[in-house]
Amino acid sequence: MSEQRKGSTQTVPPSEATSAHASLRQRTSVEKNTLQPTLEKSPERQSEFTTISGHPIRRLYTKADFPIGP
Length: 70
Known about the structure:
By secondary structure, the protein is mainly alpha-helical. It has one helix and two strands; from the N terminus they run αββ.
């Protein structure tokens, strides 16, 4: 059987894995150095925020969360 089966586990290409790891490091750094001190001074008004459609809004977004433009 030389064909791969549907639903088989795929590995993440190294460039994407490195990018995801860098994104996680960036998010952790921003949370530690910027977000936490700000929340200590002024806590959030609500525990969770959502869009008008009910989709959750994360507390923190970085450049890695948005697709690269054309």
